[in-house]
Write a structure and sequence with these properties.
With 225 residues, this protein is an alpha+beta fold. The protein is built from seven helices and eight strands, in the order βαββαββαααββαβα. This is Glutamine synthetase.
C-alpha cells in the first residue's frame, strides 16, 4: 500500500508554504530533491528509520505532486496483515514528529482548489498473477471488481465514485495495470480507489472478498465458523 499524507504545522498551516500566498505550481515536487522541492525530509527520514527499527515492512518513501505532500510504501504482506503494517507507521508518525512540532494529515483533499488530493493506492496480486500468463488472472480480477464498484466505493474511495475504469499505465483509472505488467503479461495491479484516510483492513478485506472469494452483492458475505 502507498500511504500519502500532507505535513502541517501545529497551527494548521501547511508546512513550508508561505504564510500569505502559495508555493510554485505542483508537479516539480514529485520525487524531488532540494530545499525548494522537498519540504521536511529530515523528519520524514526520522519516521522511516523508526519504522525500520519497529519491524514495519516499509519499503520506500518519496515526495509527492503537491508541495509538502509525501508518501511511504509498505509491503508486500499477505492478507489483512497489511493493515497492521500500515496503521503502525501512522501511529509512529505522531510520536516521532512531536519532537519536530509538525503533524500529518490524511485528509483526502487537504487543500482546496487545483491541488492534488491524497490517496492510498493498493497493489494486489496472487501467486497465479505473478506467474507466466498471469495477466489473464489480473483481467479476471478486474472484471469482478468492475461489477462490485459501488461496494468498494463504500469501503474506500478517491477515484471516480460513479464510474469504473481500468487501463495499462492509466493513473486516472480506478484500476491501473503497470506498464511492465502489460508488457510481461504477469505481475500485479494497482487499486487506485482508496483514499489517504482509508481503513486498510476494509481495503484488503474488500479485495479478498471480490477477487478471491468471487462474492457479489452490496455487503460482504458473513461466513460462519
Amino acid at each position: 500500500m502507498e500511504q500519502e499524507y500532507t505535513l502541517m504545522g501545529t497551527n494548521g498551516h501547511l508546512f513550508g508554504w508561505p504564510s500569505n500566498g502559495f508555493p510554485g505550481p505542483q508537479c516539480p515536487y514529485y520525487c524531488g530533491a532540494g530545499a525548494d522541492k522537498a519540504y521536511g525530509r529530515d523528519f520524514v527520514e526520522a519516521h522511516y528509520r523508526a519504522c525500520l527499527y519497529a519491524g514495519v515492512k516499509i519499503t520506500g518513501m518519496n515526495t509527492e505532486v503537491t508541495p509538502t505532500q509525501w508518501e511511504f510504501q509498505v509491503g508486500p504482506r499477505e492478507g489483512v496483515s497489511m493493515g497492521d503494517h500500515l496503521w503502525v507507521p501512522c501511529f509512529i508518525f505522531h510520536c516521532v514528529w512531536e519532537d519536530f512540532g509538525v503533524i500529518a494529515t490524511f485528509d483526502p483533499k487537504p487543500i482546496p482548489g487545483n491541488w492534488n488530493g491524497a490517496g492510498c493506492h493498493t497493489n494486489f496480486s496472487t501467486k497465479a498473477m505473478q506467474e507466466e500468463n498471469g495477466l489473464k488472472y489480473i483481467e479476471e480480477a478486474i472484471e469482478k471488481l468492475s461489477k462490485q464498484h459501488q461496494y468498494h466505493m463504500r469501503a474506500y474511495e478517491t477515484s471516480n465514485i460513479n464510474n469504473f475504469s481500468a487501463g495499462v499505465a492509466n493513473c486516472s483509472a480506478s484500476i491501473r495495470i503497470p506498464q511492465t505488467v502489460g508488457q510481461e503479461k504477469k505481475g500485479d495491479f494497482e487499486d487506485r480507489h482508496p483514499s489517504a484516510n482509508c481503513d486498510p483492513f476494509a481495503v484488503t478485506g474488500a479485495l479478498l472478498h471480490t477477487c478471491l472469494l468471487s462474492e457479489t452483492g452490496d455487503e460482504p458475505f458473513q461466513y460462519k465458523n
